[in-house]
Amino acid sequence: MSKPQFTPGPWRVYQDGIHPDFQSHADPNGSHAICADFFGPDAAFNRQAVSALPDLYEALEACAAAIGEWSRPGPVNGMTVPADSHPLLAAMKSAHAALAKARGEKS
Measuring CA to CA, which residue among 44, 42, 41 is closest to residue 18? Predict the structure, then answer.
């Protein structure tokens, strides 16, 4: 799995758009807005959702790894491996596809 190429988080919402949190890391690209314009009645909510994307990526990556660890062959915590049709395995596949899309990889 390759590393994501987007600007690392955390991202913060400012009046002129969403920017990297410059106190958390040095931005190699200089001061720039990740996303500047939001319009319409949902603009404030969309701004908050977009600013959470780096955190959501990390959380989804951790969840997919945990499900993958849990579903390895052999007994785990006294449980047997789930069937291929188990909903968690489907969720893990969806998570891997979403993470690949965020990294710009073709599915």
Answer: 44
